[in-house]
């Protein structure tokens, strides 16, 4: 009961999400390309994830829109770093960059873009296009 009254921190928030998803710290660290010690520091509130990792954090922890909004409130002014060189980007890098750019938009814009993407996927599926 006393824990409910405690203020949520970035570390507690990340740990809670990871545990809810049934993920381990090594799984999350590997997915983000950081070492386990770094992730442990983030989840224990010894350090904050740097701005260059915010998008990867969102994707690796598989955050919902509500969780993303909470995360943005906990880490104000978080911006994703521009990654130079399209040919050097992995699929994960591209996903998190696109996703992070999306979540930085106003809620109405995000919803409109998401609806359009879902509609596009439906049409692609009906036309037999591969993804």
Summarize it.
With 131 residues, the chain is an all-alpha fold. The chain has a single domain, classed as 434 Repressor (Amino-terminal Domain), CATH 1.10.260.
Structure description:
The termini are far apart. Helix 3 (25-32) packs across helix 4 and helix 5 crosses helix 7. This protein has 131 residues and is an all-alpha fold. Helix content is 62%, strand content 0%. It is built from eight helices and no strands. It has one domain (2-106): 434 Repressor (Amino-terminal Domain) (Orthogonal Bundle), CATH 1.10.260.40. The protein has helices spanning 2-5, 10-20, 25-32, 36-43, 54-60, 65-74, 91-103, 107-126. It is globular.
Describe the protein's topology.
Layout: H1 2-5, H2 10-20, H3 25-32, H4 36-43, H5 54-60, H6 65-74, H7 91-103, H8 107-126
Helix pairs in contact: 3-4, 5-7
Tell me how many strands there are. 0
Q: Assign the CATH architecture.
A: Orthogonal Bundle
Radius of gyration: 16 Å
Query: Which fold name fills CATH's third level, the topology?
Result: 434 Repressor (Amino-terminal Domain)
Count of separate DSSP helical elements: 8
CATH superfamily: lambda repressor-like DNA-binding domains
Q: Beta-strand level of the residues, as a percent range?
A: under 5%
- The total domain count is 1
How much helix, percentage-wise, in residues?
Answer: 55-70%
Average pLDDT figure: 75
CATH class: Mainly Alpha
Question: What overall geometry do the principal axes of the alpha carbons give?
Answer: globular
Largest sheet: none
**How many angstroms separate the termini?**
47 Å
- Unreliable residue stretches: 1-5, 79-88
Which structural class fits the helix and strand makeup? mainly alpha
Order of helix and strand elements from N to C terminus: HHHHHHHH
């Amino acid at each position: 009961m006393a824990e409910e009254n405690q203020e949520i921190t970035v570390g507690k928030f990340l740990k809670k999400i990871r545990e809810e998803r049934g993920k381990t710290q090594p799984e999350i660290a590997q997915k983000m390309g950081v070492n386990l010690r770094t992730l442990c520091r983030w989840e224990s509130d010894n350090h904050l994830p740097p701005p260059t990792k915010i998008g990867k954090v969102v994707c690796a922890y598989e955050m919902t829109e509500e969780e993303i909004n909470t995360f943005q409130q906990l880490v104000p002014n978080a911006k994703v770093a521009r990654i130079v060189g399209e040919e050097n980007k992995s699929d994960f890098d591209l996903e998190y960059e696109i996703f992070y750019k999306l979540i930085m938009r106003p809620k109405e814009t995000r919803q409109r873009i998401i609806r359009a993407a879902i509609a596009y996927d439906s049409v692609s599926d009906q036309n037999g296009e591969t993804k």
